[in-house]
């Protein structure tokens, strides 16, 4: 198998296939450690995927900041509230946390682990194109560190080359960009900053303000990642002078500005720059074709407010690896294996997309252009249509996903359910987390919880059932698919 890109998606796919004894080549255009945004993780990545890959202990030893959840200044209530990962915040179980990671270090740990299990990782090697015939993709063309052009062939190619993938169009054509999440982010780092009161001092803090929202991520005692997410219409102004725009946006949000009072901007490389990213929420009409699959940001991405990027990337890559492992073993029909990958990946993407639309809808600020445009009622028919077709379409065979009207109604219900659950927080006894009484929240974390159970107990606590008629279920080690009708 050939994997293009050595980020979290690439490292996950590569390791999970090598663990089953197959030969794997990773081609990565940069030299690690390299900078990447996306520092706030979810528990499913740490206790699920990392454990399945055999790298959880090493990640734990790296000393990353422990994240127990998110703190939000968001919604009706002017006071910040906690989104704790624990079902019972007072009796927090030992896996209801994640980490805030410097991605350069985290990604390098994952890629080194891939090397350790036998993956041939080549850095400074850029993939230029895909080798294919009428039947299937057969390999890639790439250039090595000296610029020499080479070709490599394999049964499967995984495109895990991220948001800037040059080969994703080989599967399912171009991306569909979300209008609802047409945002732009401008972000940089401070050499310190106040921390939230313990035990939430490692939480991500997200604060809504007039023009959008800000993230505040404590990476180390002397390093804080701060980013502003605003409407795409501001792109020209931001790109003209990102550092000035970043400072101005922070100054417009008192909750974040006060945490940074008197703290200097970071000067250490690579945290000395203010960076910009735009147009990041998109999906594709297909995620595989014979011989090639897309995983991680190469496949799809949706807004970062819930820190779902690395989860979706590693989860999608694990699903792809299961299909590839089963395909290489010749166990089941290839179409069935990769349809399973695609159906589950879409389902997970849909849950996060819907959750995030509802989460944006929950914030109320009638005076603000940004927030008025991000109401459920502003999810345009074109976007909903595309969404229903792509996410619930034939490919997934997901019978629970209805038409346009049903999708709109579900978004509205989810938003008011979220609002009610957050409203219950102040009366909580701390024993039960009222947020998990919301079906929307339970659903969005359900697959992550199954991943964690698989990592910790070697399988889910309840017998896994297929997610669709005729579907497959994961093997005990989580690395292949099995047919529940042919045990
Ligand atoms: P990447 O991490 O981008 O890795 C792709 C790799 O492929 C790179 O190393 C690249 O060098 C390599 N590559 C590219 N092209 C080629 C080529 N032609 N040949 C060889 N190699 C190639 N996620 C979270 O979980 N938490 C967050 O808090 C969060 N915040 C975010 C904030 C913003 C503003 C944005 C835009 C995203 C955020 N994300 C967050 C998302 C997160 O950054 C991504 O989802 C995640 O990095 C995806 O991992 P990946 O492995 O798919 O891609």
Number of domains: 2
- N-to-C span: 27 Å
State the helix count.
13
Could you say which small molecules are bound to this protein? flavin-adenine dinucleotide
Percent helix range: 25-40%
What general form does the structure show?
globular
Strand order of the largest sheet: 5-4-14-15-16-13-17
Report the biggest beta sheet as strand number plus sense, adding barrel if it closes.
7 strands, mixed
Radius of gyration: 22 Å
In terms of structural class, how would the helical and strand content be classed? alpha+beta
Q: Write the CATH fold name of the largest domain.
A: FAD/NAD(P)-binding domain
Fourth-level CATH superfamily of the largest domain: FAD/NAD(P)-binding domain
Q: How many β strands by DSSP?
A: 22
**Taking all residues together, what is the mean pLDDT?**
90
- Assembly type of the chains comes to single chain
Beta strand %: 15-25%
By CATH reckoning, the class of the largest domain would read Alpha Beta
Stretches where pLDDT is under 50 for at least 5 consecutive residues are: 393-400
CATH-scheme architecture of the largest domain: 3-Layer(bba) Sandwich
Notes on the protein architecture:
This protein is of the alpha+beta class and 487 residues long. It has two domains: 2-64 and 101-178 and 281-482, FAD/NAD(P)-binding domain, CATH 3.50.50; 183-278, 2-Layer Sandwich (D-Amino Acid Oxidase, Chain A, domain 2). It is built from 13 helices and 22 strands. The chain has a seven-stranded mixed beta sheet with strand order 5-4-14-15-16-13-17. A six-stranded mixed beta sheet has the order 7-2-1-11-20-19. Strands 8-9-10 form a three-stranded antiparallel beta sheet, with no helix packed on it. A hairpin with a 5-residue loop joins strand 9 (137-143) and strand 10. Helix 9 crosses helix 13. The longest helix is centred in the C-terminal third of the chain and has 29 residues, at 334-362. The chain is globular, with a radius of gyration of 22 Å. The model is unreliable at 393-400 (pLDDT under 50). Bound molecules: flavin-adenine dinucleotide. Residues 4-10, 27-30, 34, 36-41, 126-127, 160-164, 166, 185, 227, 277, 280, 296-297, 301, 304, 307, 309-310, 313 line the site of flavin-adenine dinucleotide (FAD).
């Amino acid at each position: 198998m050939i994997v293009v890109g050595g980020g979290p998606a690439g490292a996950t796919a590569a390791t999970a296939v090598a663990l089953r004894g197959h030969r794997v080549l990773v081609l990565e255009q940069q030299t690690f450690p390299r900078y990447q945004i996306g520092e706030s993780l979810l528990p499913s990545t740490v206790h699920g995927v990392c454990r399945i890959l055999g790298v959880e202990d090493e990640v734990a030893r790296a000393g990353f900041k422990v994240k127990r959840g998110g703190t939000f200044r968001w919604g009706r209530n002017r006071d910040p509230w906690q989104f704790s990962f624990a079902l019972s915040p007072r009796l927090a179980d030992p896996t209801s946390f994640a980490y805030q990671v410097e991605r350069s270090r985290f990604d390098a740990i994952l890629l080194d682990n891939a090397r350790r299990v036998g993956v041939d990782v080549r850095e400074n090697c850029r993939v230029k194109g895909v080798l294919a015939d009428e039947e299937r993709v057969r390999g890639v063309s790439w250039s090595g560190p000296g610029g020499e052009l080479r070709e490599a062939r394999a049964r499967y190619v995984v495109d895990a080359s991220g948001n800037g993938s040059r080969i994703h169009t080989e599967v399912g054509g171009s991306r569909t960009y979300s209008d609802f999440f047409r945002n732009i982010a401008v972000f940089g780092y401070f050499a310190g900053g106040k921390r939230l009161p313990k035990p939430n001092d490692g939480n991500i803090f997200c604060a809504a303000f007039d023009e959008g929202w800000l993230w505040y991520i404590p990476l180390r005692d002397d390093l804080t990642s701060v980013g502003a997410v605003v409407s795409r219409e501001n792109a020209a102004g931001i790109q003209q002078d990102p550092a000035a725009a970043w400072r101005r946006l922070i100054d417009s949000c008192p909750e974040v500005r006060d945490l940074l009072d008197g703290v200097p901007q970071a000067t250490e490389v690579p945290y000395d720059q203010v960076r910009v990213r735009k147009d990041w929420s998109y999906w594709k009409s297909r995620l595989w074709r014979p011989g090639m699959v897309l995983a991680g940001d190469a496949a799809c991405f949706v807004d970062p407010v819930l820190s779902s990027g690395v989860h979706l990337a590693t989860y999608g890559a694990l699903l792809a690896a299961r299909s590839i492992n089963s395909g290489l073993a010749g166990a089941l029909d290839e179409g069935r294996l990769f349809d399973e990958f695609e159906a589950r990946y879409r389902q997970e993407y849909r849950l996060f997309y819907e959750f995030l639309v509802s989460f944006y809808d929950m914030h109320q600020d009638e005076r603000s252009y940004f927030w008025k445009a991000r109401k459920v009622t502003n999810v345009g028919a074109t976007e909903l249509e595309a969404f229903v077709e792509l996410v619930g379409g034939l490919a997934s065979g997901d019978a629970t996903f209805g038409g346009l009207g049903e999708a709109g109604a579900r978004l509205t219900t989810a938003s008011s359910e979220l609002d009610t659950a957050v409203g219950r927080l102040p009366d909580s006894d701390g024993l039960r987390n009222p947020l998990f009484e919301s079906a929307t929240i339970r659903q969005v974390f359900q697959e992550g919880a199954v991943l964690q159970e698989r990592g910790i107990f070697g399988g889910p606590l309840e017998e896994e059932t297929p997610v669709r008629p005729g579907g497959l279920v994961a093997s005990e080690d989580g690395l292949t698919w099995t047919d529940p009708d042919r045990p």
